[in-house]
């Protein structure tokens, strides 16, 4: 899309009229913030996790605690010496505080960070057969997230704190709701409490079907729920709006599994317009966004159709891009 608009990638959100500026300061930066040119390229992050680009996305190909004993797991050191460098990733974002709603993404917060270190299969076995060890590791993951949150709030003027912990699959939760409530919820509670104590909105991300715990998220003080994967069981956006709209704002809901990559522009426009109308029927409480990263195979016309449904035309996007190009040319001339 940036190539089509003939602008540098870092200016794409500006051309598309995004209102939110945010970046990752926790392990999600290693997954999404480091972009490799071709499949097979890889890097090892500060946690010892190896990420390899596969089918266009970074995926884990080495878990540092995969073969560790429980004693070795409990002796693992989180990269606390990297907190300053990680939080500094916010500097370019925070510089835009006069023009954007500023967010700091401290995900993954607890369970998801644990399995990235241990591996999904082994972490699930630990939760079943060695729950005290699993709980301690999850607590340490959340403790590290808290350190990042505290450092970011101390250094920058934020508008929201973005928490995240994927626990949903296509048809249900990865963990049972009771296990989530006993092992994960208390840590998300203290992170949400911290964000709210700083006067911030608190957003929460989990992919998949998480309908059984949405009431719990309201209870712990989450203000915004993302990404609302509408094709997952129990995650119809309009139904969630009716049930939880008095307590939660929603962000997402434009399907990236089938609609954006496969539908016609007319279908994308109609579906997105209907979503916006339904999610804002009471006057607000909705942030338009795709339900996940827009797939690279998505036709450009479908992306433009989604924005058109929100009132931003293709022509206006190209005009904004032209303005950005002219501004960059002016800056370049001044530095010659």
Write a brief structural summary.
By secondary structure, the chain is α/β, with parallel strands linked by helices. It contains 17 helices and 10 strands. The strands form 2 sheets. A 7-stranded parallel sheet has the order 1-5-6-7-8-9-10. The chain has a 3-stranded antiparallel sheet with strand order 2-3-4.
Structure report:
With 336 residues, the protein is an alpha/beta fold. It has one domain: Alpha-Beta Barrel (TIM Barrel). The protein is 46% helix and 12% strand. It has a 7-stranded parallel beta sheet with strand order 1-5-6-7-8-9-10. α9 (131-155) runs parallel beside α11 (185-197). The radius of gyration is 20 Å and the shape is globular. The relative contact order is 0.10.
Blueprint (SSEs and pairs):
Layout: H1 2-5, H2 12-15, E1 20-24, H3 28-33, E2 42-44, E3 50-54, E4 57-62, H4 70-74, H5 83-87, H6 91-94, E5 101-105, H7 111-118, H8 120-129, H9 131-155, E6 160-164, H10 177-183, H11 185-197, E7 201-205, H12 214-219, E8 224-226, H13 237-244, E9 249-251, H14 259-262, H15 265-279, E10 286-287, H16 300-309, H17 314-335
Parallel strand pairs: 1-5, 5-6, 6-7, 7-8, 8-9, 9-10
Antiparallel strand pairs: 2-3, 3-4
Helix pairs in contact: 7-8, 8-9, 9-11, 15-16
